[in-house]
Amino acid sequence: MRQSASFIPTLRETPQDAEIKSHQLLLRAGYIRQLASGIYTFLPLGIRVLQKIEKIVREEMDRIGAVELLMPALNPAELWQESGRWETYGPDLMRLKDRHERDFLLGPTHEEVITKLVRDEVKSYKKLPLILYQIQTKFRDEKRPRFGLLRGREFVMKDAYSFHADRESLDEVYDKMYEAYTRIFTRLGLNFRAVIADSGAIGGKGTHEFMVLSEVGEDTIAYSDGSDYAANIEMAEAAAAYEKPDEEERPLEKRFTGDRKTIEEVAAFLQVSPERCIKSLLFTVDGHYVLALVRGDHEVNDVKLKNFFDAQVVELAGEQAVKEVLKCPVGNLGPVAMKNEQPVKVVADHAVKYIVNGCTGANEEGYHFVNVNPERDFQGVEYADIRFIKEGDPSPDGKGTIRFTKGMEVGHIFKLGTRYSDAMKAVFLDENGKERPMIMGCYGIGISRLVSAIAEQTSDEKGLVWPKSVAPFDIHLILINERDEKQKQMAEELYDFLRREGFEVLYDDRKERPGVKFADSDLIGIPVRLTVGNKAAEDLVEIKLRKSGEMWETERSRVFAQLKEIFERI
């Protein structure tokens, strides 16, 4: 492609609203442009990177027997009402009406559509297992779109769905998908980790997220420094071994604590450590009230709380609800002498059980209990792992200690089970002629998000540094002086020759100063730069590797051999 005839609007200055490196560089290098908040146009360079990623994804999906199709982005509300997600998905759903006032939505994901399709077409176990996938634009009404392509309202996604007659078949395909995703992200040149995750609004049991390690990631990954264990912090099991202090239990006593509400304030006033305090938070879990208890130095994990109750919606109750239900203000709640008139279930983290002579709210403004002993003073309390794991805790697999790092999600695989087939009556006849629900899996990759993820990990202070697998071109051919006939002739001949030999070449034939061309070349980030300049008269060209900065001159007759060797090793 001749750069003079292409559309690559590079920028010298960084746009003010671009917060992270990948967003800044993709804008400056002319890969994307923003149309509205969270909505982007892919320019010629950007679409080439996107298509390279799609090609790798297609190759690995085809390798495991997945079959491609394309489903509508516009979905009738009836399908989502049938699955129950019209009400539960939340405000991220892009809803609209047609001219007849019928409800529709722009699909953020396609479990409902694919379930209807397979339900209507597949009736026998002989047609299972079946793996279908698509690469398509999705829509989510993000409350706060940010970081360019990493959190947008319109994005490109690969979503795959599998249908099975039994769990063993689902497990087999899940493992194949796990391996395929590992190959995909490896081929893309990413530093990533597969972590245990929560299924969120998709539903189902058993899921892994594929996280690209990055300081700008919005997810915290808990990993072991002594094994390959890794999990999203929401799902990491707190496997700390607790021991009771060896001291005698003292009588329960109510103490005046005034307007001190926080754990830190109460602990300091009562001269106890936060570990001896019990933090009490009121939640609504699918419309029912739950008082969650954790140790003062721990935090309630609402995802674990949701999973413990197998719930759809978990929300922290507001101050007004606390006063109405428990008859006291936030900051004085506790599981002892509760004054609730409405039913309130109490669930405590395992660590709470090991507190001796602790303190907790007395359910009365200005007062707390001291010398609280859970097994003596609590009634009707269930114990479960409901806290966030902490850095320094022992790893759940018993190997090493937990450390934290940041990551951005680029892929997610789920074992859905019969979540959608039950709701939407997607059934088949087994070998005995008995009707059974199909067992499903779901597997997503954020294609457009990967453009930013790769850019974030592989760029440097000069610009983008694309891996050869996804670079928009293999070679950036630069003509220094278009008025020099010898240079122009050599550059034109090299351009034609390299394309015939199968290389993808961006030919900078613009009437620009050399400094501008070199700066743009570094910014755009193509793996190899080939420069035709003053030494064209000596039949010499310059080769530079974008990633390492290595540079040398070579005779034109040796260019092809050297380029072939370069692309075999980079």
TrEMBL record:
Primary localization: cytoplasm
Keywords attached to this entry: Aminoacyl-tRNA synthetase, ATP-binding, Cytoplasm, Ligase, Nucleotide-binding, Protein biosynthesis
InterPro entries: aa-tRNA-synt_IIb, aa-tRNA-synth_II, aa-tRNA-synth_II/BPL/LPL, Anticodon-bd, Anticodon-bd_dom_sf, Pro-tRNA-ligase_IIa, Pro-tRNA-synth_IIa_bac-type, Pro-tRNA-Synthase_IIa_type1
Principal EC category: ligase
Domain of life: Bacteria
One Pfam family of this chain: tRNA_edit
Catalyzed chemical reaction(s): tRNA(Pro) + L-proline + ATP = L-prolyl-tRNA(Pro) + AMP + diphosphate
Localization per record: Cytoplasm
GO terms, molecular function: aminoacyl-tRNA deacylase activity; ATP binding; catalytic activity, acting on a protein; proline-tRNA ligase activity; transferase activity
BP term (GO), one: prolyl-tRNA aminoacylation
Start and end residues of each Aminoacyl-transfer RNA synthetases class-II family profile domain: 33-467
Entry EC number(s): 6.1.1.15
GO CC terms: cytosol
Note on domains (UniProt): Consists of three domains: the N-terminal catalytic domain, the editing domain and the C-terminal anticodon-binding domain.
NCBIfam families: PRK09194.1 (NF006625), proS_fam_II (TIGR00409)
Family: Belongs to the class-II aminoacyl-tRNA synthetase family. ProS type 1 subfamily.
Quaternary assembly: Homodimer.
Function: Catalyzes the attachment of proline to tRNA(Pro) in a two-step reaction: proline is first activated by ATP to form Pro-AMP and then transferred to the acceptor end of tRNA(Pro). As ProRS can inadvertently accommodate and process non-cognate amino acids such as alanine and cysteine, to avoid such errors it has two additional distinct editing activities against alanine. One activity is designated as 'pretransfer' editing and involves the tRNA(Pro)-independent hydrolysis of activated Ala-AMP.
Protein name in the entry: Proline--tRNA ligase
Organism the protein comes from: Caldibacillus debilis GB1
